[in-house]
Design brief:
Layout: H1 4-11, E1 15-19, H2 20-33, E2 39-44, H3 51-60, E3 63-66, H4 69-77, E4 85-87, H5 94-102, E5 107-110, H6 113-126, E6 130-135, H7 161-172, E7 177-183, H8 193-212, E8 219-221, H9 238-246, E9 255-258, H10 262-265, E10 269-281, E11 284-289, H11 298-302, E12 308-310, E13 319-325, E14 334-342, E15 349-352, E16 373-378, E17 383-388, H12 393-397
Helix pairs in contact: 2-3, 2-9, 5-6, 8-9
Bound molecules: ligand LLP.
């Protein structure tokens, strides 16, 4: 049992809490599932980029999957070795490519022919050979939310098989490109195994046909996307996931790379918020809390379900339906609609579950609300420590205040 009340009192609300032991367990279970082959888990930093979360995973042996030079620098700052960092993303600026090459990361994941040309130019200027992988779009429907589906040709990600082949040949013939990897990622919050297996089979076949062309792919990057339980989703077990991937790789000597984000951190996290008051508009009951959509936007943005728990109320209390909403000036500012909760009082504590991925990283200062503090729980929840202090008003105006007109 997590000491939600005590932690809310110690650090105040709204607050993010992350159970680091949970992250360890998840990392180990994935690593274990792939033990039949060499593997490298590159944590998708975008899911939760707190430096201490990255450091924790780095200490377990993880590398990082980064989608901006900022994320690359975070990973390095948190102590992740440069040779375990990959840089992905559908659009990279020349200066980002250059810096990634200078930092000698494991590889740059390229998503278009135009980008490959740019990487070659930057590498030539630096007199380096850029290690690259190419993101293949296998045109598979991952059966997930359309906003987080990426593996169909109608999505902007990756290149089709023929283009990928052309790019590999171009890279093989270049003095400044070293094609070491191949990559696919068909979507996020995946709960069906078959689309992943199909995508992996298609990409593995491409690796075989590249071998014939004297292009030796050493890193087989299966992306991220493993779904987690927010509500009652069916889950893909790590063992089944590994077996499905391994079954497509017969005869290939590759290191399997993965880019899980949500799987590692989502259910480690809790968002703590206090009730400000209740009100009733007509027939509609609202519980108004001190956290808002700027802190945790997934319900507003994707209509995502996050389980809401009211702490300290007995199971026998009478409940009625309500919307749990924040103070932000938007009708879309809600954490849950039509949930059954007992009558709450000012100061009651509400815990929003599954808040460890794509929650703090997607938060903003909208309505000049400071980003909230983050706390790590360690040693079976016995120890807690601040890993990001609460943003102050001064923090929020720091980049603007020097530019006010003086008269
Ligand atoms: N690799 C690539 C290339 C990706 O695009 C992503 C996620 C990942 C790995 C990590 O995926 P994961 O294992 O976490 O599913 N904001 C959305 C999720 C966006 C995911 C974007 N890409 C949400 O809150 O559900």
């Amino acid at each position: 049992m997590i000491r939600f009340q005590a932690l809310a009192e110690k650090y105040d609300t709204p607050l993010y809490l992350y159970d680091f032991d949970y992250i360890t367990t998840r990392y180990n279970s994935l690593k274990e599932a792939f033990k039949a082959k060499k593997s490298l888990i590159c944590y998708a930093v975008k899911a939760n980029s707190n430096l201490s979360v990255i450091q924790h995973l780095g200490n377990l042996g993880a590398g990082c999957d980064c989608v901006s030079i900022g994320e690359v620098k975070r990973a390095l700052y948190a102590g992740v070795p440069h040779y375990k960092i990959i840089f992905s993303g559908v659009g990279k600026r020349d200066d980002e490519i250059r810096e990634a090459l200078q930092k000698d990361i494991l590889m740059i994941n390229v998503e278009s022919e135009a980008e490959l040309n740019r990487v070659e130019i930057q590498a030539a200027e630096l007199g380096k050979e850029a290690r690259i992988s190419i993101r293949v779009n296998p045109n598979i429907d991952p059966q997930t939310h359309p906003y987080i589906s990426t593996g169909l040709h109608e999505n902007k990600f990756g290149v089709d098989l023929d283009t990928a082949k052309r790019m590999y040949i171009f890279a093989r013939n270049s003095d400044f490109l070293d094609p070491v990897g191949i990559h696919f990622h068909i979507g996020s919050q995946l709960t069906q195994l078959e689309p992943i297996r199909e995508a992996s089979a298609i990409v593995a076949d491409l690796v075989r046909s590249l071998k014939v062309l004297d292009i030796d792919i050493r890193f087989f990057d299966i992306g991220g996307g493993l779904g987690i339980r927010y509500e009652n989703e069916t889950l893909i077990e790590p063992y089944d996931y590994a077996q499905a991937i391994l079954s497509t790789l017969t005869g290939l000597d590759v290191t399997i790379m993965m880019e899980p984000g949500r799987y590692l951190s989502a259910n480690s996290g809790y968002f703590l918020t206090r009730v400000l008051y209740e009100k009733v508009n007509g027939d509609k009951r609202f519980v108004i809390v001190d956290g808002g959509m700027n802190d945790l936007i997934r319900p507003s943005l994707y209509n995502a379900h996050h389980t809401i728990e009211l702490i300290g109320k007995g199971a026998d209390e009478e409940v009625s339906e309500c919307d749990v909403v924040g103070p932000v000036c938007e009708s879309g500012d809600f954490f849950a609609k039509n949930v059954s909760l007992p009558i709450t009082r000012e100061g009651d504590l509400i815990v929003i579950h599954s808040a460890g991925a794509y929650c703090s990283t997607m938060s903003s200062n909208y309505n000049t609300r400071g980003r909230v503090a983050e706390v790590a729980l360690e040693d079976d929840g016995k120890h807690d420590r601040l890993i990001r202090r609460r943003e102050t008003f001064e923090d929020m105006i720091a980049l603007e205040k020097a530019y006010l007109k003086k008269d």
